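Honest question from a wet-lab person: if I give you the sequences of every part of a complex, can you actually get the arrangement of the whole thing, not just the pieces? Trying it with mine:
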Amino acid sequence: MTTTTTAPPNATVFGAEVPQPPQHGKPGGIMRHLNFGTGLLAGIVGAVAAGWITAALTPTSASNATFAPTEPEYVYLAVLIGWVVGFMLGMGAFVGPVRWLLGRDITHADAEYMAGKDLGFRRYFKFTTDHKVVGIQYLVVTLVIFALGGTLAMLIRTELGVTWAELFAPTFYNTIIGTHGIAMVIAMIVVISGPVGNFIVPMMIGARDMAFPRLNALSLWLLVAAVVCLISSMFVGGIQDGWSVYYPLAAQAPPGMLGYQMTIIVFAISTGVASVNLMTTILTMRAKGMTWSRTPILVFGVFAASLMGLYAFPFYQYSQILALTDRIWDTVFFNPVQGGSVWLYENLFWLLGHPEVYVILIPSMALALEIMPVFLRRPLFSFNFAVAGIIGVVALSGLVWAHHMYMTGWAPAVNYPFMLSTEMISIPVGFLVLVAIGTFWRSTVWTRLPLMAIYAVVFNKMIGGVTGIYLSDVPADQYFHGSMFVVAHFHYMLMGAGLFGAMGGIAFYFPKMTGRILDERWGSIGLWTAFVGFQITFGSMFVAGLQGQPRRVLQFDDMFNISNWLSTIGAYVIGLGMLIFLAAIIFSWRSGDVASSNPWGSKSLEWQTATPVPLENFEVLPVVTERPYNYGVPDPYEQRMKSLDGDLGPDTRLESDDKAGVP
Amino acid sequence: MKRVLVTIACIVLGIAVVAGVGAVAAISGEEPKAIVAKQVGTMQTPDGEKPHYELHLDVYPNSSAAVPPPRAGSPIQADLLSGQPFYHPSTSIQVPANSVVTIHFTQYDSGGQIYNPYFAKVHGTMDGTMTWNGKKVSEIKPSEVGHTFTVHQYPESTQPYLFLSVPLPMNAGNAKTNSDGYPVDPQKISVTFVTGEAGTYVWNCEFPCGDLYQEFGGPMQARGWMAGTFEVVA
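Yes, you can. This is the full assembly:
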């Protein structure tokens, strides 16, 4: 292959002549040859090579300070590192920095290639920088993680259907509990900020792309690399200690623990990169006229989640880096038999663990508040109150972590201040619920699938919130904290509010993302089936918890059989509902009704551009002149046009608009 | 119609994936085949004459050509647990309800100091003793424990109480061994106890013998090695 260096003429970018650096070879350079396939290949080669070299260099008889043999640990760690580095190398993640080091600036043609221009379907399998492609990639990856976590959830509930079923070995049961937990936490963290944050937010603020397009692709593919680490852990002993992997259990665990640690380390990098990108985009690239009071509430939600993720995830990442060094190099941060502190671990873990709840909840609630004005055809009830609620949650989110440690014996004197801060955070969260209820009040309801999901979110959020108040209370928590009551509570918060909100978000933005309407009938059947199953599953779990069933155990007393049996039936119903919803996504994506550019008649910017969305989003960058939720307020432009000629221009309504009853 | 078919396909595929993963996991993690106590006659107890059953359990320090290792759930687990002690021929034990049961242990492993001397004593047998190389004893030196066989009452309201704990004395480090590396004159222990109504229990070794994580890891946590189930059947 010959490489030619030419000095191309100026590029015309949005009508402006822009001088270009020399073009090396064809646009895209080596990126033309790199894709998911080469990533997989390089990842596997990297993993095998690193594992083989490490095995050759490590004595088989060596053991660490706790008598565990070190060879499998070293080899597995090398495999994981080899996989991550190889995969990212094969995807082309390092091409940009290398080009920069070589002084080869990117040309406009290179940038367009990397954004996936004219690549068709292939762009979804490459290190593509276009935020819309990354948004779709996030959606698919998130669905895959949900499929993994959901499959494990079905196995858990099958095992717990009746006591002593013992379908699986106890160690495997522990593994599926831990893997399900962390897989679902990861999926819930990215389910809104990933697909919606990437696809919608730049358009929502009137930007052409994210601030750092390559970092955007980097965060996505790091997530993929992390998920493979997580799955691999199941084949080397698994994560047998729950998603929190407390010490000393973590120190006793088989090598699968390294898979967990590497997953978190890589995922935290991905999240940090994504957070910085989203925050910078929102801070610096909002359209002209989009003051904070004219910025949609979803943007506030995504910004808040990014901010919380940015300060909280490093604690979690540090905890896993230190845990890894304890395991591999016999450092003594956490392992109590050598003098480490389990409380240090627990503090670092929960410094992420609780803000993470709000990283999941706030985008979900913000999305709900974003959707409601569209379908209730009225402004958000007290936009400022909603913003204050989000700010309040962010401010308090880092001051509540120790309520997870009331019963650990760490600093009992701080229990009551943390009880106060935890109960205080229900106030700003309550703001958001009140804004939702206030927006519903005396509104004209246009009930469509996205709004149905919001009904579910508000219902689940209230149950999850109220039960959370009991758990924040030290005396009540003494009774509840080790029971299934806690499991039911956090599922109401994370799944009930987070996942149903995400379903609403998918239904709402489906037309913009795919150009088609998500099938209302099958989508609704899936949503409500899952909702009913959800109430059966976790309502019964509340009962089991109040009866005293301990969590985290395989066998339980016969007296809990009925509630567990109901929970299992409910879980199958959730699974059925989710599969129906998935089917609706699949066939709607392939052959659903074609959507107009703004099928819901929304006023926010992302709906004002064409569908499919052009590469640059907007031909001319928009200027914002009013608040995003001025439904019912006469549009001065529209009034003026009507008064002039009574016609707003060509009729852009589609048949699907009429079918859908778009006002 | 096409949409109905896609929906049905999704549901069927989803169920197949869950069932497939579950089936593979269930098969790979299958419990060892249970050993069942055999009736050898009857025995007089304070509650009258009851049927008498017996079974034999051996404890090996590691596998050998003569004694294969227990079945592991995966090659990785097999690798991690190779060279670790285990009960043989199974850790799934089945005994009849309302009977007298005698378990004969043959202990080939070495040992040392047990942290909790409670487990150096015999608990739950008919007369509070065990037979150790022909002699009746109610406890052994805490510094000479090889393993224990401890059946735990599982916290269930509907199961009858059952607690049995037997210390298995260690073999000396310099004991004469055969070609497989096992002592030629192992420790022989017998215990006799009475079962009540049917119930399901778990048992494990309470002596840290795992040689992984402070000797409490690996086999100590693995069914088939140093832990198992103890089922009393009607």
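Two things worth pointing out. Helices of chain B lie at 2-28, 75-81. The interface with chain A takes residues 2-3, 6-7, 9-11, 14, 17-18, 21-22, 25-26, 28-31, 73-74, 76-77, 79-80, 154-158, 200, 211-218, 221-223, 229 of chain B (CB under 8 Å).
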